[in-house]
């Protein structure tokens, strides 16, 4: 038997094989004879080449050329397992959700994966139905780990379903990376040849703008998807928002590290913890740095912590992004919240939930959340009643204590927080229209007139603060009429003895001003004197005044507590009770213009001090029925001469001549001198009782010694005889 000798391979053929091996290896990994590019050992370089579509220098098959079918050594005598840390040509777990994910491996490499992962071997995922032997290995045909893709559950086309799945934390069936497995790394089709842009309207795996403040907002996307977002938005690309400064080189994509659109969150400006700062921002119109939706980005859709793990309830005292009640009429009122935030309010208050106010009827199905469309707490604002334009109607309503239908906050709900128009686009500030000033109130004077601000309920102070906040007001202070936050400081305690009517009564009856007049009392005790902010009424019949009025009981004239000494500037306060029904509405209350009790007094200026000269020429014109009456006790004008002429030297009191009448130097001597020293001049024909004034007072013979009959409201004593001072040369008529 002739032995068969091994066949010898020609030398030139060995040289060709070696050359082919070198060519197939590409440019090596840094060793002798290798032609891999510099840095090939980095996984971002050789790993990317291995995972891409199979080609001469790409795909796992190209690696096998040099490193062997099993990649343990091959002609290159270099195995892949020494670096990868496992018995495989890829890194250890996790195989998805990290930088070294297998989801971006081209499906053409499936046959190479098959020896280790056939029918789900060495994987936590197994195909639901293993395929018959001989079925070509593929990523999505149950030959390896995954079954067929694209068999989404019913309703998957609804963005509320597939969109929510895409935006959640990346996992085996969620996250944007899950979508990439079928639709491609750039979402342009991939293995399914179905691009996301075919429905989304933009070449992206999300809808078109707006990306915040709408139902399809990006702020609910889990930050774990940032790497996918980075495909289009690195360094703020394709976004109106850019990071203020680039991040350190090599920073992984993140939502809040300046690698994409946003910078670091949580570094709020100084004073952010003050509700006047962050609260005002949250309540503003939704935007890149304002609105409730802006808070949700970090604190979570339900404000329970979110990515920053800080719940709003930790400060607010309630499980909500706002303080506890009251929500209206206080500094932290909800009426200053921009209506654009309604969708966020709807998380807790849809159909009036968690509110004392419910819409009268449900809105049409599918209505978007709104402040005044019955989707939350309020229904549409009702049309104002007839006559609303009259200041006595809408003004009175605005000045009342705030509630669902009254107070300045009620006006702000429609006309805007600064009354410049709001959602009804009707401003209260037009100086050429109603108010005549750029304010929601009448022009000056603001007190002592019909349109006085002293009748405004203190609960409206926060609205007044829009224009009248004091420069010294501490941020966060509660607005109040008398705490230095607006115009007034605390009301001073009344001085000692204030309960004495000679003290407080005199002050009330003085001309209106900062410390006098009835309006000064009204500022604390209320416009009707029934209590006001101090809750002390002036009207108790069982208390001080003994009458349901801010004055003493009758008589109101001729006594110590006479109303005749009240300054006429207080007439508007008197008009609360005494205004005549026949007084024209346009005529301001006045003492002598027929609006209250008295008619027009046609005396000239200075009459109070100059009427004596007229009286000396004869008193008949004063003592007529149409004026002070024939007995000078009031007459038609209701003003008794004895109200001012209260007395003289004893024993008389209530006499018709002024004090010190018995002093010849001062009074009656000069009076009688001018009349020819005739005592009959004191006896005009129209005197009481049909006798002369002199006879009525001093007796027919001017020697009166008996008590006289006193006119009403006068208490007379014994009148002196004229001859007690004068000689007998005086003649008697």
Please, could you describe this protein's structure?
The chain is mainly α. It has six domains: 12-120, no CATH class; 160-236, no CATH class; 275-352, no CATH class; 391-468, no CATH class; 501-578, no CATH class; 628-733, no CATH class. The protein is built from 22 helices and no strands. The longest helix has 14 residues, at 11-24. The protein is rod-shaped and about 160 Å long.
Please supply descriptive tags for the structure shown above.
733 residues, rod-shaped, disordered C terminus, single chain, 6 domains
Output the number of helix runs: 22
Helix-residue proportion: 10-25%
Rg for CA atoms: 49 Å
Major sheet description: none
Order of helices and strands: HHHHHHHHHHHHHHHHHHHHHH
- Counting DSSP E segments of at least 2 residues, the number of strands comes to 0
Head-to-tail CA distance between termini: 196 Å
Percent strand? under 5%
**Uncertain parts:** 1-33, 646-654, 673-693, 705-718, 729-733
Structural class: mainly alpha
How would you state the average pLDDT, rounded?
A: 74
The shape, in one word, is rod-shaped
Q: Structurally, how many domains make up the residues? A: 6
